[in-house]
Amino acid sequence: MKKIPILLTAFGLSSCSAWVFAEADAERGAASAAMCMACHQADGGGMNIAGGESWPRLAGLSATYISKQLHDYKSGARSNASMIPFASMLDEQQIEDVAAYYASLPATQGKGSEGADEATLNRGQQLAERGDWSAYIVSCKSCHGSDSQGAGGDFPGISGQHAGYIEAQLQAWKAGNRKNDTQDLMGSIARRMSDDDIHAVAVWLASQSPAGN
Amino acid sequence: MIRTLSYAALSGTLLLSVNASAKDTTTQQYIDTLTELGYPAPKGNELVHIPPTMEDLESAKLHPELKRVIRRGYDLFTNTQQLRGENVFNNMNCSSCHLGEGRMPFSAPVWPAAVTLPNFRGKNDHVNNLEERIAGCFTYSMNGKPPEYGSDNMLAISAYHQWLAKGVAMYPEQPIYGRGFPAPDRPEELSYARGEAAFEEKCSVCHGNYGEGLRVGSETVFPATWGDMSNNWGAGIVRIFTAAGFIKNNMPLGQPNSLSDQESWDIAYYMSNQERPQDPRYTGDVAETLKNTEARFHKHSMYGQTRETDGHVLGDHRNTGEKPFLKPDSIRSRTFE
Prior knowledge:
The complex is a heterodimer of chains A (213) and B (337).
Chain A: H1 3-10, H2 26-32, H3 37-40, H4 63-75, H5 83-89, H6 92-104, H7 118-129, H8 141-144, H9 163-175, H10 185-190, H11 195-206
Chain B: H1 5-10, H2 20-36, H3 54-59, H4 64-78, H5 94-97, H6 111-116, E1 119-121, E2 126-128, H7 130-140, H8 152-164, H9 192-207, E3 214-216, E4 219-222, H10 240-250, H11 261-272, H12 286-293
Antiparallel strand pairs in B: 1-2, 3-4
Signal peptide (chain A): 1-22
Pfam families (chain A): Cytochrom_C (PF00034)
Keywords (chain A): Electron transport, Heme, Iron, Metal-binding, Periplasm, Signal, Transport
């Protein structure tokens, strides 16, 4: 865990003082999360919106990961017009509490794979489980863990996430609009993926189980 | 027909080609992808082989039962942890080091073993076949005990190697493009402190601050780079030049050739200064073991040397990690007498 204070310093936040708060409390987090529910829903399941901005499922994601994203919205390291005002309303304690709250909720199933054709799903499965080394696209599972259900606080569960959200994020990485990943690990892969590949892996992941995050 | 130099260089691998120009284009695209990633283009007459994929296997004209066995070999190669406690006693999969399912050049692609063995091997000073070479990986890199020669699992893993070599002539005379983990030139000085700092900055997000890697449930996501869950002192990658070559060509994952030569060597040096399970060739005495193995192996590692930061003599212990024995019985010398 040595690196976390360093990370916070890098994003212009206080380093040590950030950790002098009370332990994260999911129940307190539920109260702060009231303002999140309009988009992320009462069960934390978010919503897949075809052709629009999909809202990610937060339920069952790693608390460390959610906390980092909220910090990044506040600092400007991650940009999103909808999220920045809400994240900015949360103080350090509230961020930890909200993160703990969503992490404690049971993961819900992603949407957006309905009606996908078999060839698309097969390609998506290949990319997620084996990658395509002919284009140096490493598999999702090589960082996001077996079944892509998440590995530690840096690599979130993406299995069972909404297709619209995954596709938008990969496109954002590809275009350079999202770059708050450690060492550009996601960006360097996303830039090698075609639009079809991004779509294929997004719908396949959405069709998979989110359990175990 | 005017043949370019590269075509001439490649022709040796394309003898079975029915459409040489289409294959030539495919091979050129393959090389272009690699050079864009920072890898060197093939030199002179180097043999370029594009190993077939598991998708290719489905459409290949092979007996269905053989396809089933090759699939099993692939499954064992990419999820070797299914043999944990039986043949594997650390967190490694074959594919932890041989990236791209054993197909990637500059990541010790495994198909060359299928076309260059049996051959004399300096490491154990006798002629080895493919099974014995694979047994070496289990003994050292997996800190384990090889599946028995001729067993279903050994045959399946061998079959996967041979499938990847499909179409390459046996005992090729040309040098093989991207074989092993080619090391960059060794810088004048290696630094433990710089290696430690670079490891923390570039490697620890996945491999942890203490080289412990990361597991989720019973599966390895990121392998341990040292310690009980990593390869033992006899694995090829404890040699600093091999580790430097692996790192430079393959790490961080998805960003090959992004580290400088100095960083790659410093990180490799730092890693070789950490402890790991005992070398199965251990005689009971680290100095004696070093003497026996120095010329052909440990002169390239820190085994038996004193660590500059605290005076610890590396490898001076009887720890075999999770493995309840030192050396598998099947590892023996051969004289062919």
